[in-house]
Amino acid sequence: MTKTLGFFPGGLKLPGHKKRSTQTPIRKTPLAKRLTLPLQQHIGSAAIPIVEVGDKVLKGQQIARADGHVSVCLHAPSSGTIIAIEDHPIPHPSGLTAPCITIETDGEDNWVERHPVKDYRSLSTHEIRQIVRDAGIVGLGGAGFPSFIKLNPGVHHTVETLLLNGAECEPYISCDDMLMRERADGIIDGIEIMQYALRAREVILAIEDNKPQAISAMELALASRPHLQNTRLVVVPTRYPTGGEKQLIQVVTGKEVPSDGLPIDLGIVSHNMGTAYAVGRAIHHGEPLISRIVTVTGKDVPHAGNFETLFGTPISELLTYAETKREPDEAFILGGPMMGFSLSGDNLPVTKTANCILAGVDDVAPAQEPLPCIRCGDCASACPASLLPQQLYWHSRAKDFDQTRDYNLFDCIECGCCDYVCPSKIPLVSYFRFAKTEIMNQERERKKSDLARDRFETRQARLEREQREKEERQRQRKAALAASKAKKEQQEKAAETADADNKETE
Amino acid sequence: MAIFRMSPPFLAGTNRVTIQMLQVIFAMIPAIAAMVYFFGPAVLINISLALTVALLAEAILLKLRKRPVKPFITDGSAAVTAILLAVAIPPLSPWWLTVTGVLFAIVFAKHLYGGLGYNPFNPAMVGYVLLLVSFPLEMTTWLPVESLADKPLDLHSAFQLIFYGQTNAGWVADTVSGATPLDTMKTQIGQSIAPAYIVNQNLFGSLGGLGWEWINIWFAAGGIYLLYRRVISWHVPIAMIATMFVLSGVTYLFAPEITGSPLFHLMSGGTMIGAFFIATDPVSGSTTVKGRLVFGAGVGALTYIIRVWGGYPDGIAFAVLLMNMLAPLIDYYTQPKVYGATK
Amino acid sequence: MLTAVIALTLLALILGLLLGFASIKFKVEGDPIVDQIDKILPQTQCGQCSFAGCRPYAEAIAAGEVDINRCPPGGESTIQALADLLDVEPKPLDEECGVEKPKMLAVIDEQRCIGCTLCIQACPVDAILGAAKHMHTVIADECTGCELCLEPCPVDCIDMVEMTPNPNTWRWPDPSHVQLERGERV
């Protein structure tokens, strides 16, 4: 154990509510009759289906391939038949639908042939990345960024530090905690592979100090592998949002990721503990990512816990299995109480980024009309990014989006600390999300109108050119006509003169 | 099961505007008690009058502006404005003075700018300054501390003085009130009397003005309570007090004939109420951390300058209003360095 | 007296030089006004303003020949932006030109299309693909929703459909307009 080197400004001490879901070991959610798999469960382009309706698939069989550079594959979580490839409601704050593949399971749970790698050191970095990509592994901390990209530092960077994020700072969520307690060895397997692939000089495992059992489990697992070099565990103070990538880097290394850059610019690559475990499974067991640990907890879940759940399992079934007291179609929160979003509808599937399902929050924010901002500045002191939420709010509300950019809106990580402390109960983060998506939309429209302008101008130019060419052709034809006419006349004249001559000669 | 809002975060802290305002009022109680002890029950009459007028005016204006009355009247901001103004004006001020000041503060300085959160100037200080420039005489004659008065003023005569201008016994306000220690200091320095000699008069105590020093100490104690409860941040009061201390200290060292001691300035007039309760008004002040230091320092410096070289015995109100004007500018130039900023 | 005159003259000179220097040093390099107007216009190229495209309309505005309120696809926000740019009063949209509508997309019903190419010739941004006697199709990403292809189609096989957001283009609602009473139970 070593000390932390820095701290981040702001942040909150929040009641953890984690005990509720860490009393029982991880349980396996029973196999659902139908599994619905959105083609896009990651950041980047949606995967492209490679199966057709009616196809029989085996557990772990690839059913959609990665499309382009930022994308990953998708696999059948269990054996069965493809019964639909169509739009289906997905767990998204918009409540919209998106293309999904639906599998009717056969209950056999037959695996496809797996290809474990005996010695990962026989693989090249490129091969490891390929396996991770083909295994459909994405960041399991919540954002869902394709992990293979973060295993490729690129030729211009050397990786100093591989940072394993086990902070799990948001209240209620305990899936990483339980994973570390129960499967520390599996996590370390993955970390070894990641370190090898990245050629990272050192590895830091960061865990918040409210998880003593996870810390000792990880320490034990580390101690059993004396060959691991430059690997250490850092216990970080419990403070929300320590688990934010940028904040954790600041706490552990004292450095700040440049606003327009990435952690790799500091020689750091960070991955989630769950991601490391998935990488270990993919290499050592040949298993693609087809399930994850989901915390099901909240005031209305008396036997809260963590559930290893196949992707595509309807959330409602998971809630029922966890014996949640709830009405059908009643809203629940996907993610934590600070950054998650509320959903309703029973037909939504568990996806790769679903870390927590929360039914019933203890100190729930009341729905009340906000009072005006009194500029108390509490939000600014709580902001881990040192922004001025009160100014951002002012400009977002006035739809003065240029100004929000001047106040660095896009450095906001939407952690919700400002909302939490606001004495006027202004939904600040909602304003910032609104402003962000509006700006992105403006950007899209601007690009589209630029494209339309280009195409219009190209077309105008083409039409003019065609017009010119047409005129040119007409002119030429006329000229040719005139020339041939002249020639004819000449000939006729010549003929006439010849005639005359002939006559004369006669 | 509870109703919650649609968007994250779904957790909320316990921080509320109303709670903050009530804390502010609570923190003023010891100092107000001290004022009653030194200046008699007239202080309480003033406060009650100001509170009634302020809450009534607030309710009527909210109605006129078609805003919900209940959430805004219970936010406590009008009450804070009323109390601040009531303790800032002389205890025996005629009733119309208090009413005018409060009405101006609530109607013009607060609601015409859009109500809570939108007023660029501290409403209580706008009301105070209006009274000060319109009725300088009424505003600068204070009751002497009771131990110095010929006859202590009971509740009944205070009431008569405030509402009828004279008591049954035929007293008028003028006969019972006089100059404050700050005023005396200023006038007598003007007459080339050495400050060290001035403070020997019985109007002065061992730290500042007699009685005033205790009032200031209790306001400071209330302020420390607010700091402890995190209702206010330390930046404004500390910057203001430090600036006043340094400025008066330097002047006192090099030109002791024109200024009272640093301690005298901190413990007289409205220094502590100004530092902890007036300059800390979030709405009209600066919101960034560095900005608050600048803001507090500005208030401190201007207050001291007005006290020593200006035309009025105390300068808190003018200093606060002047710095209110600069607050947006200060905020603009004191933005914190954002995480990961490369410049 | 003389010193005062000299001092003032000197001051005026220095300030004048300073101003002159500043005007050169800090000169704002701007696009020509036509380009700036053109940038604001939505580039639908629909011709509802009675000009043959956005650029010609921009030129006419720059020349002061027409009002700024003749662009229905841009609607209120475009009029506001133009008013800000040209420092004139914004006006309501000229009803002669049309009404503001949500963004639309042309879709060709491939069953009915006879492959006459008339719509291809009408499209101002070449967003329709196809050849004579072959079915045509609209490139959705490039369609501006100008509706110019509707008129020439002899079999009425083109429909305008509203653009629906997908999860990637969906926008968070404006919190000022969200009714809190609709908060849900959890």
Q: What does this protein structure show overall?
A:
The complex is a heterotrimer of chains A (506), B (343) and C (186). By secondary structure, chain A is an alpha/beta fold. Helix content of chain A is 35%, strand content 16%. Among the domains of chain A are: 19-29 and 125-334, Rossmann fold, CATH 3.40.50; 373-463, no CATH class. In chain A, the strands form 4 sheets. In chain A, strands 1-14-13-17-15-16 form a 6-stranded mixed β-sheet, sandwiched between helices. A 4-stranded antiparallel β-sheet of chain A has the order 2-8-7-4, with no helix packed on it. In chain A, strands 11-10-9-12 form a 4-stranded parallel β-sheet, sandwiched between helices. In chain A, helix 2 (175-182) packs parallel to helix 4 and helix 3 crosses helix 6. The N and C termini of chain A lie far apart (129 Å). Chain B has one domain. Chain B has 17 helices and 1 strand. In chain B, helix 2 (42-64) runs antiparallel to helix 4 (77-88) and helix 13 (235-254) packs parallel to helix 16. Residues 1-5 of chain B have low confidence and may be disordered. Chain C is α+β, with helices and mostly antiparallel strands. Among the domains of chain C are: 33-86, 3-methyladenine DNA Glycosylase II, Chain A, domain 3 (Orthogonal Bundle), CATH 1.10.15.40; 104-162, Alpha-Beta Plaits. Helix content of chain C is 31%, strand content 9%. Chains A and B meet through helix 8, helix 11 and helix 12 of A and strand 1 and helix 1 of B. Strand 1 of chain B pairs antiparallel with strand 5 of chain C. Chain A: This is Ion-translocating oxidoreductase complex subunit C. Chain A: It comes from Methylophaga sulfidovorans. Chain A: The complex is composed of six subunits: RnfA, RnfB, RnfC, RnfD, RnfE and RnfG. Chain A: InterPro entries: 4Fe4S_Fe-S-bd (IPR017896), 4Fe4S_Fe_S_CS (IPR017900), Ion_transpt_RnfC/RsxC (IPR010208), Nuo51_FMN-bd (IPR011538), Nuo51_FMN-bd_sf (IPR037225), RnfC_N (IPR026902).
